[in-house]
Amino acid sequence: MGDVLHAMPSVAALRRAHPEWFIGWVVEPKWAPLLWARNGGSFPVGVRARMPLVDRVYLAATREWKERPFSRGTIGDIAALRRELRGGQFDVCVDMQGSVRSAVIGRMGGARRLAGPAEPREVPAGWLYGEQVAMGAAHVVEQGCELLGGAVGEVLRPAPVELPLDEFAEETCAELLSRTLGAEERFVLIAPGAGWGAKQWPAERYGVVAAELGRRGYRVLVNASLADDDTTAEVVKGSSEGFAALFPCDLPQLIALTRRASLVIAGDTGPLHLAAALERPVVALFGPTDPARNGPYRTRSRVLRHGPERRDHRRLKEPEAGLLEITVDEVVAAAVELLGA
What we know:
CATH superfamily of the largest domain: Glycogen Phosphorylase B
Number of helices: 13
Helix content: 40-55%
CATH architecture of the largest domain: 3-Layer(aba) Sandwich
Number of strands: 11
Low-confidence stretches: 44-49
Strand order of the largest sheet: 8-7-6-9-10-11
């Protein structure tokens, strides 16, 4: 989710510079709502998108393919994607992720030129590129502009991103909010999840933050992708006195919910970057990852980080020591400051 959101400002800049160009995007089906408003429908491969950022969305279910790599269904899906991409007759393909699987899909597409980062996330990905682009910017959003701009031979600056407006999700979100909050409109959204344990601020602390904000008169919603998610349930339990309410939703509904939030509190995870893309105020809790590289971009924010300033992307299970140094009082103070601004 974060990879897609971080790449979008560079694609928006390219779209603004060349509205006549045909732009396609290959994405995991799970993240298609970031690019395409389904409006009650599904996301079939290769159908024209209902969003101005790209002209066409191609779905690559690589996580499913990995689970059954030699099945007839996987082989058929890969062959179908290859036909769709080659049918686009692309002049250039840019691997914005720098992984082996994205580079392989880039080669599979048959574009005349395949470009990628000079220092890809996974070194073998670079073996597949015909061109490699050096990037020197600190933030990953600006790196995306360097990469895409270098591939097309132009200077690109990050442009504002318009996320799709899913009518069905907007309606259902408004209805759920009405039932949850009543006539109140302002609320704080907490997204306590994390990609791995080292980035996970303790759920019970999020619960205390929710309680403290509740006592100050702010309503708090807790984002959950599943109604029975243990982490979010622990946040609600820790908030005491019913100050926090669980709000299970899918990605289109999360987009709709985040649009309406007065503030988002989260770690270095997808909902944080979604809030930044929607220009919502955020309190960002960082531990092993570097906010200078992938912190909230161009939105009102307070970034909290303690401990040694180093990057560590190991998928460790336990919260990073510096992350645990962030106190409830610090988070509440940052939240109240942004809410009162």
